DNA sequence: GGAGTGTTTCGTACAATGTACGAACAGGGT
DNA sequence: ACCCTGTTCGTACATTGTACGAAACACTCC
C-alpha cells in the first residue's frame, strides 16, 4: 500500500520527491557530473536499483531537476506592473541559475518540461499579454528576455569558481599568452575591470536587463 | 622524425587537426553524446588508444571542438563601423551555434580557451574600444551581446529538431495538458506564432539583436 | 647489412557508469 | 493458508575513458 496521499512522511519510505531533492543536493555539492545513480542511492541509504521504482531512468531525474529549479524562480503575478514583474522574474531566475549552475547546461538537452516549468511559462506569457503585448510581440519579448537571462547565466557558469580567489588557475595558463602582449584588450579588461577589488560579474546583469526593459514596449 | 613542419600531409598519418575535425563531423552527425573515443577511432580507421598520441584526453578534444567552432565565427575587423561589425559577428555566431548545437552546452564547462577563441575575443573588444566605448562600457556591452547570442542559441538548441515536421513529438506529450485549457497563453503562442506556415524561430534573432544594438551607444 | 633511437600504433585491462531481468520480501484481503 | 500488489535489491552486461607497456615502424649512423 501507498502511504496516504502524496504528501510525504519523512522517516521510512522513499519517494520520487525525495529522490529528486537528494539529486539536487548532490548536484549542487559535487557537480552534475558526479551525480550517478550509485552515488545517489548511497546518499539515500539504499541501493541503486531501488531508485528505479520511483524513476524510469536517469533522464527523468534530470528532467525533474530542471523543474525543481524552475520552482525557485518567482512566477509573475497577474495584477502587477509588467516591467516590475519581468524584473523580479529575471533576477530570481538568474539567482536560481547561479545556485545551480549545472542547470544551464541541462536546459539544452531536456525536452520534457515539468509542471513548474509550464506554469512559469504560462504565467509569464499571461503577464505580457495582459500588459498589451500582441501575441507576436509577446513571443519576441519573451524570447529576448529569456535569451539574455540564460545567456548571462551560461557565461556566469563558465567563470572560474565564482569569486573564490579572484583569478589564479585561469590566469596561470593564460598569463603566458598575455605576457606576449598578444591580447592587450583582454588584459585591459582583466586589470581594469575584472580584477578590481569589489568586482562581481553578477552585478552586470542588471545593466543589460534594464537596457532591454527600457527598449521594450507593448503595442507601439 | 617528424614529417616536415606542421602543415599536414593527407594520406598516411593522423594528426591532432584531423582528429579534431573528425570529432566535429561525428558530433554534428550523431550528437555530442555519441562522440566516444572508440567511435572516433573507428571513424578514422584506427584503434582507440592511438588517438591518445595526439590528444591528452577527451576533455582536450572537447576544448578543441569549441575552438573549432569559434573558427567559424566572423572576427570583427579593426576599421569598420562598430554596429555593423557587431551585427555580422552576432549573426555568424548564431549560425555557427545552430550548425553545432552541442557547442552551446560545451561552453559552460570548458575552461581552456583555444587560440581562435582568444583571438576572437580580443578582436571584438578592440572594435568596441576603438568605437569609443570606455573599458567599463566595453565589458558591459560585450557581456550583454554575448549573453543574448548564447542564450538565443541555447533556446534554439533546446527546440525540437529544428523545423523537421513542425511539431509532433513535442506536441504529443504536452497536448494532453494543453487540452485541459490549463495553458491558454502557450496554446495561443503555439497556434498563432510557432505553428504558422513560414515560421522560423531563427528569424527572431534579428529582432532582439537590433533592439540591443539600438540601445547601445559609446561614451554617453 | 645491423644497431640504435625516436615516433607512432595498439592489445589488454580496469574502474565506473546506466540499467535489464528477475528474485526476494512486505503486508493486507480473502 | 493463499495470493496480490507494492517495494527492495543482487547479479550481470554493455559501454565508457584511459593507464600501462609492448609492438611496429621509420630513420640515422656505423
Automatic annotation (TrEMBL), chains A, B:
Top-level taxonomic group: Bacteria
DNA-binding region(s) in UniProt: 36-55
Domain HTH tetR-type, chain residue ranges per copy: 13-73
Record key words, sorted: DNA-binding, Repressor, Transcription, Transcription regulation
UniProt cross-references to Gene3D superfamilies, sorted A to Z: Homeodomain-like, Tetracycline Repressor, domain 2
SUPFAM superfamilies with a match to the protein in the record: Homeodomain-like (SSF46689), Tetracyclin repressor-like, C-terminal domain (SSF48498)
GO molecular function (one): DNA-binding transcription factor activity
GO biological process: negative regulation of DNA-templated transcription; response to antibiotic
Ribonucleoprotein is among the record's keywords: no
UniProt name for this protein: TetR/AcrR family transcriptional regulator
